[in-house]
Amino acid sequence: MSTYFPSGKDLAGKRKWYVVDAAGQTVGHLASEVASILSGKRNPGWTPFMDMGDHVIVINARKAVLKGAKAEQKMYRRHTQYPGGLREVSAAEMFAKRPDRVISLAVQGMLPKSKLGKAMAKKLKVYADGEHPHTAQRPQAFQLTAKSNQA
After folding, report:
1. Per residue in 87-109, pLDDT tens?
2. DSSP for 79-125?
3. What is the CATH number of the domain that holds 115?
C-alpha cells in the first residue's frame, strides 16, 4: 500500500478557472474562501509544500461589504522609505478608490508569506465591475457557502 504523491509535472495544465461574484459578500468571508481555492485545500490531492490551487477571478468587488466599524477603523499602511513617510489610508477611502485592491490584500493576508504564497497570489484576478477578460479560459461559476449573518 503506497501513498499517492503528486509530481510537479503538468500541474499548470490541470488548473481550473473559477469566477466568484463578490456582490453582497463580506470581504473577510470572501477572502477566506478564495484563499482556500488558490492554495488548493479544496483539492483532494492537496500537498502542503506544492501549489495545487486553481485560478480565481473575483468580479463585482465594488459591491462587497465591510461589516461592523471596519470601514472607518481599519487602516492600510505603507511607508515611502523616507523619514516621516508613513502613509495611512482608511478602508472606506481605499474601497472608494480601489475596491479590487481591498479584496486582493485581504486574500493575500490569508496566504502563506513565502515564495509559495506569492505564486498562489499570482493566480488571483480581481475586477471592480462585472466584466473580465478571461472568457477564453472558460471559467466556472463558484458559489460561496452561506454564512450566518452576524454583524
Report:
1. 999 999 999 999 999 999 999 99
2. E-SSTT-EEEEEHHHHHHH-HHHHHHHHHHHTS-SSHHHHHHHTTEE
3. 3.90.1180.10
